[in-house]
């Protein structure tokens, strides 16, 4: 059966006015071209609620019961990598048939949404302790000390393809708990290698490696670009250079070169690229 067109507010008000004027439901229907049953319904609604406006509608009942909502919320809280298909099958085994869209809408009402897992370094207990020692050791350093640091790093730019992603169900501002992240290991290769540096005063030089970067190329990049960057940034006397614990950075030849050049190097904990603010410039590459 086709759905009838809803009467306008003006027509509903006319029905009430004619009713108050003493006309019958049949007469009102004939005069306005409205079914008698519709006229009667509008008059009854007006008598009950003293209005002809549309009342709030309850809408269709939820397809997932409160118990089912608790079930799937508990599931994704324990294992955020649970897929919508897994939840559909789980509810179906419990006697409730729903679509993946219903799952998404239900979890969204619980404050959960599907997000890409944040990639973070794979940390062993020794790495955790080293990071804590680093953070606590410099906790009370004045801001001026950090303004006198030149931060540096290399990054790879992939020209073809994208790194795989996984989606997790999580709440707002909950992207970093281990169960919501994907551990990564650096230096998996790439098509273009870049070196860059910056300080609190601005960016230094950005250099593209001509080939796979090794110790000799890294020393050449620093020799040609680190001091010019420090001068352009107007670093104060005694400025500190930061780089991570990549093997070519901590090789004996590299340490000896830095010592001869009288560069002061910031001690850096292993597996800690995320502590380097240059990652914000690279966009998390």
TrEMBL record:
GO terms for biological process: DNA integration; DNA transposition. It holds the Pfam family HTH_SB. Residues 149-282 form the Tc1-like transposase DDE domain. Residues 71-136 form the Transposase Tc1-like domain. One of its GO terms (molecular function) is DNA binding. InterPro entries: Homeodomain-like_sf, HTH_SB, RNaseH_sf, Tc1-like_DDE_dom, Transposase_5, Transposase_Tc1-like, WH-like_DNA-bd_sf. Residues 1-52 form the Sleeping Beauty transposase HTH domain. SUPFAM superfamilies: Homeodomain-like. This is Transposase. It comes from Eleginops maclovinus.
